[in-house]
């Protein structure tokens, strides 16, 4: 978590191993016993912190529902209720790493792509179940919705970060909630 916090605050490339060690009372030797280098530590942050959080908040609820519109709306509302100015200042940790590291490191790119793909697939599966249950319009393209939703939400978070505006994020989130209503039969 100390590595996550450092990377989230500063970005991966600017993250300081010294700060991480200081914040964990861990020695450099102990760190290198578990991770060969900073890159492996960054991969662990994606795999064990960012992915785990996204899976618990988004993927698991979507894999268990046949009312995906309501589920997504509830997740968005709950996320918005928890959002702080600091969250807006720092942005989405997954999107931050995607922007910073995907163009320059294949290990990060592959991990981040896998997380986004699983999230999109969870939406797609939920939409298909919702269509079968009569809770989503039959003409809805489930794959398209998965990609579009993730891209739009990440865009909302990026716009809010660049403008440093919680209001912008809330406006975008409410817009997504409203647009999702159009998918109901």
* Biggest sheet architecture: none
Number of strands: 0
Strand content: under 5%
- The Cα radius of gyration reads 18 Å
Q: Decide which structural class fits the backbone.
A: mainly alpha
Could you characterize the architecture of this molecule?
It is a single chain. With 185 residues, the chain is mostly helical. Helix content is 78%, strand content 0%. The protein contains ten helices and no strands. The chain has helices at 2-10, 17-24, 28-34, 38-63, 68-82, 85-90, 93-101, 106-132, 142-163, 166-181. Helix 4 crosses helix 5 (68-82), helix 5 (68-82) runs antiparallel to helix 10 (166-181) and helix 9 runs antiparallel to helix 10 (166-181). It is elongated and about 60 Å long. The protein starts with a helix and ends with a helix. 28% of the residues are buried.
Any chance you could write out the topology, listing elements then pairs?
Blueprint: H1 2-10, H2 17-24, H3 28-34, H4 38-63, H5 68-82, H6 85-90, H7 93-101, H8 106-132, H9 142-163, H10 166-181
Helix pairs in contact: 4-5, 4-8, 5-10, 7-8, 8-9, 9-10
Write out key terms for the chains shown.
elongated; mainly alpha; 185 residues; 10 helices
Short description:
This protein has 185 residues and is mainly alpha-helical. It has helices at residues 2-10, 17-24, 28-34, 38-63, 68-82, 85-90, 93-101, 106-132, 142-163, 166-181. The protein is elongated and about 60 Å long.
């Amino acid at each position: 978590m100390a590595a996550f916090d450092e990377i989230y605050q500063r970005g991966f490339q600017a993250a300081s191993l010294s700060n991480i060690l200081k914040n964990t009372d861990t020695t450099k030797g102990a760190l290198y016993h578990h991770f060969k280098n900073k890159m492996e530590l960054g991969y662990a942050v994606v795999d064990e912190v960012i992915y785990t959080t996204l899976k618990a908040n988004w993927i698991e609820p979507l894999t268990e529902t046949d009312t995906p519109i309501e589920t997504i709306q509830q997740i968005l509302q709950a996320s918005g209720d928890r959002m702080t100015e600091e969250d807006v200042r720092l942005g989405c940790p997954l999107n931050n790493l995607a922007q910073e590291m995907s163009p320059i490191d294949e290990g990060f790119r592959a991990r981040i792509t896998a997380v986004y793909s699983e999230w999109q697939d969870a939406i797609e599966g939920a939409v298909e179940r919702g269509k079968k249950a009569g809770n989503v319009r039959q003409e809805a393209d489930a794959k398209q919705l998965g990609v579009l939703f993730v891209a739009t939400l990440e865009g909302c978070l990026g716009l809010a970060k660049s403008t440093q505006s919680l209001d912008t994020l809330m406006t975008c989130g409410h817009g997504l909630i409203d647009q999702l209503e159009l998918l109901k039969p």
